[in-house]
Amino acid sequence: MEPAGSSRVSDAMEAVCETRSVALKEYLLEQARLAARKHPVLEPQMSWYVRRQHLRSKITALIESVVESVSIGRLPSLEITFDSWDSVNVETGVLRSKDSFSRCSDLGTVNKVERFARLMVVLKIVYSLLTRNEISTVRQIFYDNVKLFENQMNVSLVLHDIAKLLDCSRRDLNVVSTAKVETSANVVLIVEKDAIFQKLLDQDALTFFRNLNIDLLLVTGKGVPDLNTRQLIHILAHLAIPLAKFFVLTDADAYGIEIAGIYSFGSLVQAYAENYGVPQISFNMRPESRIVSSTMHQKRLQNLLVRPWMKLRRQWYQEVLKLLSLRCKAEIQALDQFGHSFLLRTYLSDKLRGKEGAEL
User: Active site at which residues (predicted)?
Assistant: First the structure.
């Protein structure tokens, strides 16, 4: 039986060997060029082509050092800077790593074997991307070797380590978090719940609205939106499709209103930094079936009334007062009582086409 982690070491060594023949030539050529110069200097604003060549040379040198260690029976060891406040300074006005703070990553434990194997495989991928000047995504790298990486976070961690090893930024590695997206949507519908989002997809909502001359883009933050989701909406609204109409579909309760407020005005947590609100987002809470509101929910509604952004949304304010008065709330799923497709074919169809002259 093979020792734990041995197959992953094999993966790493295979990646090294496949890269070595091409990489060795590149490395020797680079060393010859450097030797011909007395004081080789890399300009900060070097062209991307030169920078790619420089990064490939660094990868080559790193792989050669690993191969050399393995060839003499020594465990490879890589120095990677610690993520800590002690490892940086601000003498130049920006955070910079101190050369004196580093840690060694060797193959002393199974955990490190896995990490090393992942690093070697991703180095091979990055080298290939830089050579062909192509872009890949974290997701694509993960799905090409699910067994090795286990989850996408591990791919991101390895890319973080490689950026440190090569003294470059993540974007220089030609690997992005997501692929670039182009859209001609004229309506964006932000859905609070993933279950409703999936239901609309299952009912082929995009084709349904396309037949109504509405080019719809569906987005969900799966509840309270994270920063990435809000950044996406902000970019769509201000850069990609500024003429599009934006709607948010949530439950008619305190949580749904809060989520709509975050999309429209940003969050309190991010108030100190650039906030990613989209004030033009439309929102309305009018499902027909009501649920009795709890005392805690009533308090949340009262807290919403004093939110600063409520002053800018008188209609929202009136809706909250109505919920308080009726002591009720309503979920999106309540519309299913009128038919399985009522939400899409009647409620959203009327709202997105502006038939009722009201916000969503």
Answer: 143 (o-(5'-phospho-dna)-tyrosine intermediate)
